[in-house]
Amino acid sequence: MAKGVTEVIAIILLLLITVAVIGFATGFFQSIVTTGGQQAQDASKATGDRVHSITIKNAGTQDIDTAKLSFLVDGSSVTCIPALSGSKSPGQTITCEGITCASGDAITVSAPGNTVTGVCPSA
Question: Of 26, 36, 96, 117, which is most buried by a Cβ count within 10 Å?
């Protein structure tokens, strides 16, 4: 009888270990998917009621191809002047010039794997 109880306890322990490993792996990979994509922090410089530039920082772990970035003001695409090209390493900043928005407009910056939305500051 003792032999049967030991086998049951061993199976229960193996199941608990398996569940714990799956839980850890799920949490780990979910955080990689969430933060592994290129993250951008937007910071705006405002003059009057217009924003002249949007600066974002590559807070991710991979280079960002600046040609794949898109900038939107209230859902409308805006073009950076001059056009962005090349790539930026983690920690580097990217500045998009020539942006115009009114106070309270939504500013959205999209990169592969991440989108950040902010609000155009008031004057």
Answer: 96
